[in-house]
């Protein structure tokens, strides 16, 4: 009887020890979580999150762009590849980040591997790839004195060979030229005219006086040209698109960038057209 008790006690101790070992190993095992989703009509994304001790160690992101319906003689797959490459230059030379870009038929596959090591954290934060609770600089600033022009290349919704809806540049101070028609479609067109269904480059001069606001319930605001200015809201608003036969209520955005001069903007677009 005494031997049975001893064996039982030893068995319980072994179970407790084994349980502690399993608990410890489970808490320190590397875990992989895979998330998949469709971002828009041409873009699918898969993110592999690798974690340990409840901390993310690495993310592997694969983005698949399917341009089957958009490839043509005027816009070959190489055009879209160069666009994606040029749109993601902010990853270049960031410590802890590896990227790859390849073409498979009419699809472009873009992969980004990010290592969240403490050695790389400062670089990741400064590159805008990681947000923080304030231990690093995580605010967004405009430097209108240097980067005067904001430009966007896009295809606006259209129907019946006419453009549809309204496009507005909105900020925490109000919309761009909001005192003129609520700020709708107050952009300038790089080539001077719009063709429904075609990509156009629209730009805004951020150095003009009273650039945003309406002067009544939203006081006018002129962006500083001598120092950086914190910006909390800076967005494009696409609205008032009507569903109708033959109408295209979707819009395609190719890129959004700032430029020091109009010559810089024109040179960028000319180089893009050559690629």
Backbone shape: globular
- The computed structural class is alpha+beta
SSE sequence, one letter per element: HEEEHEEHEEEEEEEEEEEEH
**Contiguous helical run count:** 4
| Unreliably modeled segments | 1-27
Strand order of the largest sheet: 1-2-3-5-4
Cα gyration radius (Å): 26 Å
Mean pLDDT: 79
Strand content: 25-35%
Distance from N terminus to C terminus (CA atoms, Å) equals 87 Å
Got a strand count? 17
Taken together, the total number of domains comes to 2
- The proportion of residues forming helix, as a percent range, comes to 10-25%
- The biggest beta sheet, please? 5 strands, antiparallel
Outline the fold blueprint:
Layout: H1 2-28, E1 31-38, E2 43-52, E3 55-66, H2 77-87, E4 97-104, E5 107-115, H3 121-126, E6 141-142, E7 149-155, E8 158-159, E9 162-163, E10 166-171, E11 174-175, E12 188-189, E13 200-205, E14 229-230, E15 234-239, E16 247-248, E17 252-259, H4 262-274
Describe the 3D structure.
- This protein is of the alpha+beta class and 275 residues long.
- It has 2 domains: 31-126, 2-Layer Sandwich (YehR-like fold), CATH 3.30.1830; 141-274, no CATH class.
- It has 4 helices and 17 strands.
- It is globular and about 60 Å long.
């Amino acid at each position: 009887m005494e031997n049975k008790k001893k064996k039982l006690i030893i068995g319980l101790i072994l179970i407790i020890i084994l349980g502690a070992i399993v608990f410890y190993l489970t808490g320190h095992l590397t875990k992989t979580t895979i998330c998949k989703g469709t971002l828009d009509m041409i873009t699918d994304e898969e993110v592999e999150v690798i974690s340990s001790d409840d901390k993310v160690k690495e993310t592997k992101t694969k983005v698949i762009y399917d341009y089957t319906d958009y490839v043509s003689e005027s816009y070959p797959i190489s055009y879209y590849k160069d666009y994606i490459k040029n749109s993601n230059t902010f990853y270049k030379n960031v410590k802890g980040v590896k990227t790859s870009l390849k073409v498979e038929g009419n699809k472009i596959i873009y992969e980004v591997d990010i290592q969240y090591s403490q050695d790389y954290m400062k670089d990741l934060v400064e590159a805008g790839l990681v947000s923080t609770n304030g231990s690093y600089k995580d605010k967004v600033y405009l430097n209108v004195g240097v980067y005067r022009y904001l430009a966007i290349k896009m295809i606006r919704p259209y129907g019946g060979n006419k453009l549809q809806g309204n496009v507005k540049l909105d900020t925490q101070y109000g919309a761009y030229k909001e005192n003129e028609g609520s700020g709708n479609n107050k952009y300038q067109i790089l080539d001077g005219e719009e063709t429904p269904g075609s990509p156009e480059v629209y730009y805004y001069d951020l150095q003009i006086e009273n650039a945003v606001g309406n002067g009544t319930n939203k006081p006018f605001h002129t962006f500083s040209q001598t120092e950086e200015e914190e910006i909390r809201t800076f967005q494009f608003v696409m609205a008032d698109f009507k569903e109708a036969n033959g109408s295209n209520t979707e819009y395609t955005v190719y890129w959004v960038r700032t430029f020091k001069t109009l010559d810089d903007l024109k040179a960028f677009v000319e180089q893009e057209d050559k690629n």
